[in-house]
Amino acid sequence: MTNLNFEGVRSMIDKKLRPLITKSFSFTVSNDKLFISNLLILSSFIIFALAGGWNFLERALSEIIQERPLPKIYFPIFFAFGLLMPVLISLINRSQKSVQTIFEPYLILLAGQIITEISLVLLVGKGMGVIVGLVFSLLRLIQLQILLPFSKGLKAVNYILYVQILLWSLNVAQIIFNRMIPLIVKFG
Q1: Cβ contact 59:124 at 8 Å
Q2: Per the domain annotation, does 1 fall within a domain?
Q3: How many domains in the chain?
Q4: CA spacing 20 to 30 A to 120: which of 40, 41, 134, 141?
């Protein structure tokens, strides 16, 4: 049996992959760049919607949402842990620059998601919530990985970031298994 050296793999990822991800997605931790990125995502999604580019996908995803609704507790969990928890921690620790450095970008990206999702659901239909949710959840997971090193020495903040990583990973998994795979099976 082969003995895997997980510490070696982790070290290689930290040395090679983390700097590449951090450099490529540095906009996810810069407040100014996040505002611009949110506007670019919103604008491009709306332009594509006005051109009719989302119509088929939206209809198909709306059917899947109807056939496979999420449990009623799903959105309250995300509201409590994905929005309220970071807002409260940010407000309680508003005088600590290190905490703000972590939570301001997180909340800006979350606000961008909420605005984009509401706009597109109203403009195109509820199936767009799946697409917007997937795009922003993936961006948020990258963002959280970049922000994690900033939480060293802040045990409670570090714990909250890991809760966020778990929460948004579950959201991505839910979208893939409960929305995208059924979409591929149905129309693939």
Answers
A1: no
A2: no
A3: 1
A4: 141
Q: pLDDT per position in the chain (188 positions), as tens?
A: 455 566 776 676 667 666 766 666 777 778 888 999 999 999 999 999 999 999 999 999 999 999 999 999 999 999 999 999 999 999 999 999 999 999 999 999 999 999 999 999 999 999 999 999 999 999 999 999 999 999 988 999 999 999 999 999 999 999 999 999 999 998 87
| Global model pTM greater than 0.85 | yes
For residue 38, what are the contacts with CB-CB under 8 A and spacing of at least 6? 108, 109, 111, 112, 115, 116
- Cβ(64)–Cβ(187) below 8 Å: no
Tokens, residue 139: 């961006």
* Number of other residues whose CB lies within 10 A of the CB of residue 124: 24
Amino acid present at 175: I
What does the block give as tokens for 174? Answer: 């839910």
Q: Provide the residue range defining the domain that includes 64.
A: 6-187
